[in-house]
Amino acid sequence: MTTRTHAAGANRRPELRDFLMSRRARVSPAEAGLPDGGGRRRTPGLRREEVAVLAGVGASWYQWLEQGRDITVSPQVLDAVARVLRLTGSERRHLYVLAGLNPPLPDSVVDDPDHLCDGLMRLIEGWLPNPAHIMDPYWNTVAYNESAAVVMGFRPEIRQTTPRTSWTPTGTRSPTTSRPPSSWASAPKSGRTA
Known about the structure:
Elements: H1 3-26, H2 48-55, H3 59-67, H4 75-84, H5 89-98, H6 118-126, E1 133-135, E2 141-144, H7 146-152, H8 162-167
Antiparallel strand pairs: 1-2
């Protein structure tokens, strides 16, 4: 590890500690599915030990993580901690950065039709009569114009993954993927013979 990388990690440790402590304080034991315990708690939100148990990690190890000690952490453990602390997608990515890992890609917004700006929708509609579609980082089709629906068989009720729908033979696709339009069956075959 270079001195620069080591220094950057040392600078993030107090931020990691503050971030985890603040997020732990936001979650009540009842929200985490734990019994109330009856009396008054000295700690707002969850205790470190409770987070550790719910995340499936050792209490000492979680304490070291929250203290910002120089330990190796896996994405699986960070995901478990993020789940227990009920972190949003952006908070989860921030946790990865503070822990010194590459953050995961944002959750796909395929199911949210309002996530695309009006300019992108005007752009693909402007391509008419040519087919046009927009994909997310996972090659899922998130928007398309009418020509693309006809040519590529896109349907709004089915989540399409472009490579699978465009470049695999129809017979090998699962029933949940889109099928080419029935008019393709009557299209003239190529001049090649077997």
